[in-house]
Structures are given as C-alpha cells and as structure tokens.
Amino acid sequence: MPHADSALIPSGLDKAAFWTHVHEQLSHLLDGQRSWVTNLANASSLIFNALQAFPEFGTGERAVNWCGFYLNDELFPQPKFSAKEAGQDELPSRLLLGPFCGKPACQLIHVAPGRARGVCADAYVQRKSVLVHDVDAYPGHIACDGETKSEVVCPLLLTVNGEQRAIGVLDLDCLALSAFDERDQAGLEKIAKLVVDACDW
C-alpha cells in the first residue's frame, strides 16, 4: 500500500472506531523506523489528513487546523557552532516546536517553574492530558492561531530506568468550540504511547 493511503478513512466509522483505525494505520507506518524526527513527521501528517477525511471534523468549520508535537529541547541536536557569547546563561526548560501539520506555530513553550503557561505546558508539567472546550476561557492560553477555538494536548511519557518522564506533547487544535471529547482524548493517548514506544529518543 502506498504510504499516503494510510490516511484514507473507511466510511461509517464512529469516533472510537476512527481512532482505532488511525492507531492501526500508524503502527504499520512506523514499523521498522526508530528515528523520532521521521516518525513524528509521519504521525502528525497521518493524524491531520485522517481528521480532514473524517466527517466528524472534515475541512470546514469543524476542521482540525493544527496537529503536531512540541518536544523537550534536550532531545534536539546541540549546535557545533553558535553566535552565543561565552558565559551567556543557558535558557530555562522549554519545549521546542517539532514536526507538525498546519499553519506556522509558536517556536517554543516555557515549562520551567514560574514560567510555564498554556495548555501544552500544563499537559507536560502535570503529565496528563488536557482537554479544552474553549481556549479563550483557558487561563494562560497561548494563541498561536487566533482562529483556534478548542484544543486537546496529550503528554509523551517515556519510562527510563523505571521512572516515567515527560519528553514532549502531542497537540491538536480545532476551529470549532467543544470539538474534542473524551473519545478523542483516549484515542490520542494511545497514539502518544505508540509514538513514544516506536522511537529512539
């Protein structure tokens, strides 16, 4: 099957069946590849395009307008050369923009104590999913796209030496209020685990 066909959606699926289908398609797409850059790029594309093909969301006023990842900056390669002055303080803990589909997005999100704010930071720091029916009513919401009305964010949780740590988040935005529900959250949490397990970090 061509890779692009993994985003095709059979007709007649309810939300639970939709997320089961996306999970299955993604597991095949990630099979045999351990690069997190490659896998997160394909994951964001598959989820985004599958949602556009799913009548519950589609491409109209209920469209998901952004799907992607923010990752702990420690996962990114360190530069060999930099214009940074010697002795300049290191930046505090933050998430950097990773692979995504949608309009240009915020480049970084602070997660250090006292600086963390927004849905992604809360999901990351609390290590639990955050479902937001109205982003304008969410304290500290960071508006990357003013058209976004609702959001769901799931943490990426990796177990290392028996200790669970957050390494990033999977973030989805929608043009409609209250677009996401607990079925979406449950499906995305399973996808987040699949992605974490499929990659070398």
Number of DSSP helical runs: 4
Strand order of the largest sheet: 3-2-1-6-5-4
Structural class, by secondary structure, is alpha+beta
The topology string of helices and strands comes to: HHEEEHEEEH
Question: Major β-sheet, in short?
Answer: 6 strands, antiparallel
For this structure, the quaternary state is single chain
Beta strand %: 15-25%
What does this structure look like?
It is a single chain. With 201 residues, the protein is α+β, with helices and mostly antiparallel strands. Helix content is 29%, strand content 23%. It has four helices and six strands. It has helices spanning 15-30, 36-53, 119-126, 182-198, and strands at residues 64-72, 94-102, 108-110, 130-132, 150-160, 163-174. A six-stranded antiparallel sheet has the order 3-2-1-6-5-4, sandwiched between helices. A hairpin with a 5-residue loop joins strand 2 (94-102) and strand 3 (108-110). The protein is globular. It starts with 14 loop residues before the first helix and ends with a helix. The model has no long low-confidence stretch (mean pLDDT 93).
Write the layout of secondary structure elements.
Blueprint: H1 15-30, H2 36-53, E1 64-72, E2 94-102, E3 108-110, H3 119-126, E4 130-132, E5 150-160, E6 163-174, H4 182-198
Descriptive tags:
201 residues; alpha+beta; six-stranded antiparallel sheet; 4 helices; 29% helix
